[in-house]
């Protein structure tokens, strides 16, 4: 299915407010974003494209837990690829969006809402299952409340999402019962505190591991770039056809690459 292209400006009279847009996104995708700036990761747009065009957006490749700009860029690359596959002629201002500035992200989501409304065909879609329960890390975690979104119009009278349910683990009721039964135990408050502290530390550990992995990828990326520059300089320095100025320049670049801190 080809996309219906739309045109939108920031001065359009029927643009939604930031609150309406945030509500529409949260209701449609079972998320808990609190501000427009959270859209800078690109993940929300990717899931909306999956809702609209299915397999033309590889939803499993979307980085929901991203907190670094180079990871946001990967999501926007997926979005741009899906635009090309569906015939959408919109150019994404990636460099501005990933900075997380309100105005740039607000203007883009205004356009995207109109694009979504023009292309939405209805039908059942479970956002939680589609993204395998992932949540948007920049929001601080998953929604704090259990919710069920069923056959409701999105904010501003836009598209409709049907039979979307947030599944709640059956064990939660058992846990509450166990907590009530242990109220008579003097050690229960301390145990609950320790359990809460442990869960918090485990979450922090995961976040740190994710950050370390992202930094290592970023390091490897720039190391690869430096290696390419080094190879080019070496080729010029050993090329008999190159003039002395080029060889001298490449030699100085190589010295900089090999220099170490005193």
Would you summarize the structure shown here?
The protein has 262 residues and is mostly helical. The chain has helices at residues 18-29, 43-53, 69-86, 94-97, 102-119, 127-130, 171-181, 188-237, 244-258; strands spanning 148-149, 152-153, 160-161, 164-165.
What does this molecule look like?
With 262 residues, this protein is mainly alpha-helical. The chain is 55% helix and 3% strand. It has helices at 18-29, 43-53, 69-86, 94-97, 102-119, 127-130, 171-181, 188-237, 244-258; strands at residues 148-149, 152-153, 160-161, 164-165. Strands 1-4 form a two-stranded antiparallel ribbon.
Note the run of SSEs as H and E: HHHHHHEEEEHHH
Adjacency order of strands in the biggest sheet: 1-4
Q: Oligomeric state of the chains?
A: single chain
Q: What is the mean predicted local confidence, pLDDT?
A: 81
Shape: flat
- N-C termini distance: 61 Å
How many alpha or pi helices?
A: 9
The total count of strands amounts to 4
Beta content:
under 5%
**Helix amount:** 40-55%
Features:
two-stranded antiparallel ribbon; 9 helices; 262 residues; mainly alpha
What is the topology?
Blueprint: H1 18-29, H2 43-53, H3 69-86, H4 94-97, H5 102-119, H6 127-130, E1 148-149, E2 152-153, E3 160-161, E4 164-165, H7 171-181, H8 188-237, H9 244-258
Antiparallel strand pairs: 1-4, 2-3
């Amino acid at each position: 299915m080809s996309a219906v292209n739309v045109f939108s400006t920031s001065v359009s009279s029927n643009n939604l407010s930031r609150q309406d847009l945030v509500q529409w996104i949260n209701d449609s995708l079972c998320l808990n974003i609190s501000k427009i700036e959270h859209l800078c990761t690109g993940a929300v747009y990717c899931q909306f494209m999956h809702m609209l065009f299915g397999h033309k957006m590889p939803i499993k490749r979307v980085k929901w837990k991203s907190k670094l700009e180079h990871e946001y860029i990967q999501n926007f690359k997926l979005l741009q690829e899906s635009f090309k596959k569906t015939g959408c002629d919109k150019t994404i201002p990636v460099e501005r969006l990933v900075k997380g500035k309100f105005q740039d992200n607000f203007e883009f989501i205004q356009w995207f809402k109109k694009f979504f409304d023009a292309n939405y065909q209805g039908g059942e879609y479970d956002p939680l299952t589609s993204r395998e329960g992932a949540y948007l890390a920049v929001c601080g975690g998953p929604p704090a409340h259990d919710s069920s979104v069923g056959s409701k119009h999105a904010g501003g009278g836009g598209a409709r999402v049907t039979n979307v349910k947030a599944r709640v683990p059956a064990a939660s009721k058992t846990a509450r019962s166990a907590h009530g039964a242990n109220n008579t135990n003097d050690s229960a408050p301390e145990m609950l505190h320790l359990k809460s502290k442990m869960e918090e530390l485990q979450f922090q550990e995961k976040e740190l591991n994710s950050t370390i992995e992202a930094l290592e990828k970023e390091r490897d990326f720039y190391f690869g770039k430096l290696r390419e520059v080094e190879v080019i300089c070496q080729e010029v320095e050993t090329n008999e056809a190159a003039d002395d100025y080029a060889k001298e320049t490449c030699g100085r670049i190589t010295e900089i690459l090999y220099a170490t801190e005193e």
